Amino acid sequence: MANILFVEDDPQVVAFVARGLKEHSYTVTTSTTGAAGIDEAMSFAFDVIILDVMLPDISGLEVCKLLRKRKIISPVIMLSALDNSAEKVEGLKAGADDYLGKPFLFEELLARIEAQLRRMEFVKGVPEFQSYGGITINTDEKSAFRDDVKLELSPLEYKLLLFLMRNREKALSRTLIAQSVWNVDFESNTNTVDVYMNFLRKKIDRNFSHPLIHTIRGTGYMLKDTAHES
C-alpha cells in the first residue's frame, strides 16, 4: 500500500489521522516540524504528503515551495484551520495539489488521498510495471507472457494479474484485492478471491521454474520473484 508522510504538530491530530490511515493499510511516517518533514521528504519518495500550514518552525507553505524547488513531485495535501479562498489559492500557488480545511472528516481526507493516488497512477502510466519476474504485460493488447510463453487469461484473470504487477512485493489483503479488482466488498465467507487466485496461479506458476504468487498467512497474497534470494 501507499506510503504517506504526515507533517503536523498537533499530537491529537497526528494520533487520530495516523491510526486511521494505518487501519486502511497505509504506511505512515510523521513529522512535527517543517524541517523534519523536509528531511523525510528528501530521503524517501512518499506517495502522498499531508502538510499542515501552521507548523512551529517553518510555514507549511514554505515547506511546500522548498520541496517543489528540490524536485519533490509527491502530491501534497495542505491542511489549515484558515479555510478561506485566499489561503487556498496561496497553497496551490506554493505547489500543493489539494487543500482541506480544519476540522475535517477523516473520510474526506481518505477520499482526497485516494484521488491523488489515482491521479499519480494515471500520470505514471503502467510501463514501469509491465515487466517483472519474467512476466511481461502488453497493455494495448491486454495480453501477458511469462518467459515468452503466452498466458491464456480470462479478462478477470488479466485484471487480477495487472493489479498484482502494479503492487508487486506488497502483501495484499483479500479485501483490498476484492475492492480493487471487482470493485465490491465481498462478504467475509466468500472465497471468490481465493478461487481466482488459484486460477491465476495455475497459469503463471505451473510449469515454470519457481512460483511468483505467494500466500501471506493471515493477510492475503503477494506477487514476488524469490528466485535470486539467498
Task: Summarize the structure in words.
The chain has two domains: 122 residues, Rossmann fold (3-Layer(aba) Sandwich), CATH 3.40.50.2300; 97 residues, Orthogonal Bundle (Arc Repressor Mutant, subunit A), CATH 1.10.10.10. Helices cover 41% and strands 20% of the residues. The chain has eight helices and twelve strands. Strands 2-1-3-4-5 form a five-stranded parallel β-sheet, sandwiched between helices. Strands 6-7-8-9 form a four-stranded antiparallel β-sheet, covered by helices on one side. Strands 10-12-11 form a three-stranded antiparallel β-sheet. The chain starts with a strand and ends in a 7-residue tail after the last strand. The model has no long low-confidence stretch (mean pLDDT 86).
Keywords:
about 230 residues, alpha/beta, Rossmann fold, Arc Repressor Mutant, subunit A, 2 domains, 5-stranded parallel sheet, 4-stranded antiparallel sheet, 8 helices, about 40% helix, elongated
Helices, strands, pairings?
Layout: E1 3-7, H1 11-23, E2 27-31, H2 34-43, E3 48-52, H3 60-69, E4 76-80, H4 85-93, E5 98-101, H5 106-124, E6 131-132, E7 135-138, E8 143-146, E9 149-151, H6 155-166, E10 172-173, H7 174-182, H8 192-204, E11 213-216, E12 220-223
Parallel strand pairs: 1-2, 1-3, 3-4, 4-5
Antiparallel strand pairs: 6-7, 7-8, 8-9, 10-12, 11-12
Helix pairs in contact: 2-3, 6-7, 6-8
